[in-house]
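Sample intake sheet
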Amino acid sequence: MMDPMRTGTTVRAAALGAATLMMITACGGEGGADGTEDAALTLVTGVYPLEWLAGQVGGDRVAVTQLTEPGAEPHDLELTGRQIGEVSEADIAFYVSGLQPAVDEAVEQEASDAALDVADVVELHPIGDDGGHDHEGEDDHAHEDGHSEEEHGHEEHAEEEGHEEGDGHDHGDLDPHFWLDLDLMAETAHALADRMAELDPDGAQTYEDNAEAVTAELEAIGQEYDEGLADCAHREVVVGHTAFAYLTEEYGLEQIGVSGVDPDTEPSPSQIAAIADIVEERGITTVFTEPLMPAATADTIAAESGAEVAVLDPLEGVTDQSPGDDYPSIMRGNLAALTTALECS
């Protein structure tokens, strides 16, 4: 005769094992994208704006895997063996070269046939190209001691001492932060839709329709920017690192960066002092920090100049400090921050 207690234990163990197996199967295994098994296409990317765009264009037909953990600095991404496997197995490796060297290397070695590099479908801007809003001839103190270009973010900091090739942050000659240009995002949406349609002809109309819907939303946000930034008391935008050139150039603003495109570049005390002087002399009211960067430098400049500190999000990731919870709401949150800081009417 079987022991009832032992029988109950066996049944409970079997049930637990079955439930665990069901959970693993439903989740698609460690690191898998939701809906991978039912999706027509799989796509991997390493930065939030591309993840958002892929989700909007692909809809339910595409399973999107984000390689950067939420709240992590995307420039610092190092891939695990599992993630490299995800890159190699994806139908589309959607990235912007020069932003994340680990992704560049993985795509080149494991997924060259699946690569969709934004740099190949839109015209990226040279680093330091901020629409002519440089500081030559202005503020002589900002050009002393050889710090002028560093202080204003108008040179490629990856080429400076400590940022040579091999440190993981060489952006090359082009600024990868194209997603702050709404028109370039729309161009990229259509290029992505075309690639998806090539691989999944049955979904071609869906991808085209979705790209059109994304374009309409981006155009609406652009109209809000045109109206919101048309009449402002100030045009200077003081930021921690010069990720905002696409935005400032488009709307006739002047980006003043404490450090360059690489957010890990540590500004020197003389750089911080020079920016604080500019802020005070020009009557700039706001110094911007970012959700994924420490606010210490902005706080120091604000304390020395009497300015306030606010958040301007380069959209490299979404955190609790972001002024929204997705690409459109963060872009609108950035507009609200700018119109307040620049005293726009």
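Comment: The domain at 38-345 is CATH 3.40.50.1980 (Rossmann fold). The CA atoms of residues 273 and 318 lie 30 Å apart.
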